[in-house]
Write a structure and sequence with these properties.
2 strands; mainly alpha; two-stranded antiparallel ribbon; 90 residues; 2 helices
């Protein structure tokens, strides 16, 4: 029975270490994300990446040769509708 308890304790410790590592990796992954709020639906047009590129260049007054390195974009919001705020861009 003692061996089983020791094995269970070791498993719990290992699980905690893995959870800590996962939390650290998730936090590091969010370091370079940019979240933009309040862009009305329909304003983005066809390509979210192109819209975001134009928006950032315009608002930040960037040169055309500056590489923004936008890798991907994602719109998200739990629900949509006329009474709800616009989706966020990440």
């Amino acid at each position: 029975m003692c061996r089983a308890n020791a094995a269970l304790q070791q498993t719990v410790q290992d699980q905690q270490k893995l959870e800590d590592k996962l939390n650290d990796l998730e936090s590091r992954g969010r370091l370079y994300n940019l979240q933009i709020h309040g862009i009305p639906e329909g304003v983005k047009g066809e390509s979210v990446m192109e819209f975001l590129d134009k928006l950032l260049r315009s608002e930040l007054k960037l040169n055309d040769d500056f590489d923004l390195q936008i890798q991907c974009t994602q719109s998200y919001h739990a629900q949509t509708g006329p009474q709800l705020p616009p989706k966020d861009l990440l």
